[in-house]
Amino acid sequence: MKTSPSMTLALALVLASNVSAQDFGTIELKAKSGDPVPGTTQSLRLNSDAPRITSNGIIWFYAETQQDTNTTSLFSLSGQTQTALGRHISERQATPDNDGRVGNLSLFGTRVYSTDNGTLMPLVFLENITTAGSSALYRTTNAQGLTEVLRNGKSFAAAQPPICRTNGIGNSSVHVERNGDIWFVPNVAVSSTNCDRRSVIRLTNSGAVAAIANLGSSVQGTAHTLTDLWGEVLGNGQGGIFFRGRDTSSSSSFWYLIRGTAVLRIAPSTSSDVYAGASETLTIIAANTVTQYRSGSMSGIELIRRGQNLPQGQGQFFSIRDADVSSDNVVVATMELTGTVGGTSDDSGLYLVDSQGVVEIAREGRPAIAPNSTFTAIPNSTELATVGPGGRVRFEATYRVGASSFTGWFYYDRQFGLREFLNATTSVQGAVVQSVRMGDRFNERGEIPMQVSLNNNTVQIALFRLPGTAPPPPPPIFAISPGISGTWFDPQQSGHGLLVEVLPANQILAWWFTFDAQGNQAWFGGVGPYVGNTATIPFARTAGGRFIPNFNPAQVTNPPWGTVTLRFTNCNQGRVEFSSQMPGFGTGSMNLQRLTLPAGLSCP
Q: How much is the CA Rg of the chain, to the nearest whole Å?
């Protein structure tokens, strides 16, 4: 994942009306610096990082708060209108086990995955660790805190060896599928003195563990077996998993495909950029070629090569300056050209390659969008030119109209052709865009987020939508019903938990059986109203009783303990938030998972 650098729109002294980009798609404002951060007294402060978007439309980004500019947090915007702000993880935040804290958050140090149910899964570096290692993978939603999934120094499942404390897992060795399944190639503690990569592991969303490929596994169609795993794993988002390693055939390394339990050799391993895509395809980008390997055939198909004739006009490809590949295997490449008519020796062009062939999107010296306009600079990196699902290309380019120079953001696909969607004349709700940090790719829904600075002195997260696209209908809202009744606990804190019972007239009873700060058993609870998925309950702590036969009801007291809020995201997951007025308890929260369901009840 690469960052998108700041782009300051070139302002001419006189802006020609014929370069307006406001007639293609729509731009919606979502959040701005100064907005309140829910659950806190702080306000948002957007930093210089570009936002990202998931396939199901969750916008996520790194930012600070205006009250703490030295702490970066991972935020999201979700909900039907993509305006529900949530903060998921912050620098220096304590780990769930309270044995360390989150280190620096950045687009380089943190990989963030997303699942179809709206869960974000950040893989972060940790610091100040007392009992474990330096990396961890978490689950987090807008409504829930962190749940730890993988952690250096810990076992990932019962009866499994612990992941090594150092370099156990990292960005290249973990992949999360959209259904929440996790594939990883960990360094595990084979012994007290030896760490090694032995297996490609699949950890399902339900917690099931399977070693899919191991050292010694047979390579299908050969007489060879795996001898090394390099710890790199790629996924195509559809269950197709690739890993890099070596077998007994030679000292060379390969990319392998896991199909069911079979291991297939699919492509030679090089230092080039590699992308996993649909139909079990690997695309490998080298300086002089773009090659795709499909279905373990080891017969690569060259899509672009040096010396290939241009699809439009005289000239040839000379070298690949940079390229990007979508999840459905469409390639966009910035090419250095040679032999172009009327050009120079270092002309650049932007080209799309898909199942229909090669098409030129833009080229220096060729006409741009506006009348009498000419492209003068095409980007040299995928930071400025990327392709998303459906062959949706976005890129930045500079062009000239008469004596004036402009910088704009352009869109291309085979349906709309080449269109400009943002430049120095773009107006959003009456304010003009002055600078922008563009998100990396369009998602399946035809959306791309951006951070814009407007001439009304605001910095905002905005979303561009392609024409004809709209937010999906709102998902059904989970509501508390009698099926919520039962016992609930946090598996990370097994040993205490809550008893919950749904009562008539939208009332709910909850009792928390736990301990005080001195380790004495403590239990407190009460009855309160619920609306939708949330219940707010005043709690009291019962005290003064004695075990029979010495029980005296006159000695029992119920002093107020504080307030508890229960939020349920579905039938089996929720969260308790508390604020106690009794010494030793304070405020905080805990994730909840169902432990029991009373007989005769069901939860829709």
A: 28
- For 161-183, how does the pLDDT look when each residue is reduced to its tens digit (9 = 90+)? 999 988 899 889 999 998 889 99
Residue listed under structure tokens 């199942």: 355
**Phi/psi at 17 (5° precision):** -70, -20
3-state secondary structure of 493: helix
pLDDT of residue 312 exceeding 80:
no
Token reading at 382: 């995928």
- Looking at CATH, the fold of the domain delimited by 482-596 is given as Lipocalin (2.40.128)
Burial 407-438, CB ≥16 within 10 A → b, else e: bbbbbbbeeeebbbbbbbbbebeebbbbebbb
pTM of the prediction? 0.76
* Amino acid present at 221: G
Residue 287 tokens read as 């300086």
Phi and psi angles of residue 62, each rounded to the nearest 5 degrees, phi first? -95, 140
Neighbours of 586 (CB within 10 A): 12
CA angle 240, 156, 142 (to 5 degrees): 75
Query: For the CA atoms of 217, 222, 223, 229, what is the dihedral angle to 10 degrees?
Result: -30
Q: Which residues of 93-124 are buried (b: 16+ CB within 10 A; e: fewer)?
A: bebbeeebebbebebeebbbbbbeebbbbbbb
Here the tokens at position 536 are: 């707010």
The pLDDT tens digits for 1-50 are 333 434 434 332 223 333 445 568 999 999 999 999 988 899 999 988 89
Q: What gap in Å lies between CA 402 and CA 422, rounded to an integer?
A: 20
| Residue with token string 């649909």 | 278
- Predicted pLDDT at 159: 82
Whole-angstrom Cα distance, residue 245 to residue 215?
A: 10
CA gap 390, 431 in Å, rounded: 31
DSSP for 139-155 reads EB-SSS--EEEEETTSB
pLDDT of residue 1: 30
To which H or E segment does residue 231 belong?
A: strand 226-235
Amino acid of residue 297 = S
Amino acid at 112: V
Structure tokens given for 184: 């990883």
**Chain-centre distance of CA 3, in angstroms?**
14
Burial class (CB in 10 A: 0-12, 13-18, 19+), 10: middle
Please give the pLDDT value at position 296. Answer: 61
CA distance 529 to 505: 8
Distance CA 249, CA 294 (A): 21
Q: Which amino acid is at 41?
A: T
- Where, residue-wise, is CATH 2.40.128 in the chain? 482-596
pLDDT of 248: 96
Confidence band, pLDDT 50/70/90 cuts, at residue 342: low
Number of Cα atoms under 13 Å in the Cβ half of residue 451: 23
Q: What is the 3-state secondary structure (H, E, C) of 34-48?
A: CCECCCCCCEEEECC
Bridge-based pairing of strands 7-8 and 187-189 is unpaired
Q: Classify 21 as helix, strand or coil.
A: coil
Q: What percent of the chain has pLDDT over 70?
A: 92
Decide: helix, strand or coil at residue 128: coil
* 61/77 Cα distance (integer angstroms): 9
Nearest to 144 by CA among 588, 570, 575: 575
